[in-house]
Amino acid sequence: EAGVAQSPRYKIIEKRQSVAFWCNPISGHATLYWYQQILGQGPKLLIQFQNNGVVDDSQLPKDRFSAERLKGVDSTLKIQPAKLEDSAVYLCASSFARGEKLFFGSGTQLSVL
Amino acid sequence: GDSVTQMEGPVTLSEEAFLTINCTYTATGYPSLFWYVQYPGEGLQLLLKATKADDKGSNKGFEATYRKETTSFHLEKGSVQVSDSAVYFCALHGSGNTGKLIFGQGTTLQVKP
């Protein structure tokens, strides 16, 4: 079965610029997660979707980060404007349902200069 | 809130050595516990899990036992191989029954031939 697809693989931007990441979960997976993994740390949940509704966005910096999951399938995560501390790997994961096994994409590595 | 603490890395071992990576957690109730592995250039993969006290998860020669009394889930392997070199993350299901994972900071394992 196809895995979780993410793009781009790498992105380099300057601070105050905007950036967007895309995620295509495994077909049929209702739950989608975006995690931020800063170098040397474990992944931290930014936002969780159940179909196209938000379940948890308590750790999403809403003044600069936004995410959507149109039609309950693909999802995009946007940062506007980016800060130096946003440099990290952004991981997308999906699961068939809440509490089920998570499948992770390879991530997008963002460098903010 | 819920949290996971792992031993500091990197851990450097010779091939066929015994591996232990310590993991302790703080959580409300009795969450499911997981070990994920991240091989170089790849996404996070579930290695093993345990869903209740005294359960032992195992996979690919790795084992971990859910210890409620010590709130621990230490990862062990009797004889490591060079191919086991990766970053290992301990994680738990966060409270609130959303299915989200809370990760430790990760432990890098390097196995030398």
Please name the defining characteristics of this protein:
heterodimer; A: 113 residues; mainly beta; 4-stranded antiparallel beta sheet; B: 113 residues
Structural notes for this entry:
The complex is a heterodimer of chains A (113) and B (113). Chain A has 113 residues and is mainly beta. Chain A has no helices and 11 strands. The N and C termini of chain A lie far apart (37 Å). The model of chain A has no long low-confidence stretch (mean pLDDT 94). Chain B is mainly beta and 113 residues long. Chain B has strands spanning 3-6, 11-14, 19-21, 23-26, 33-38, 44-50, 56-59, 62-65, 75-77, 86-93, 101-103, 107-112. In chain B, strands 2, 5, 6, 10, 11 and 12 form a 6-stranded mixed sheet that branches. In chain B, strand 5 and strand 6 form a beta hairpin. The mean pLDDT of chain B is 93.
Largest sheet of chain B: 6 strands, mixed
Distance between the termini of chain B: 41 Å
From the spread of the alpha carbons, the general shape of chain A counts as globular
* Number of extended strands of chain A: 11
- Cα radius of gyration of chain A in angstroms: 13 Å
Which series of helices and strands of chain A comes N to C?
A: EEEEEEEEEEE
N-to-C span of chain A: 37 Å
**% residues in beta strands of chain B:** over 45%
Biggest interface, which chains? A-B, 26 and 22 residues
Number of helices of chain B: 0
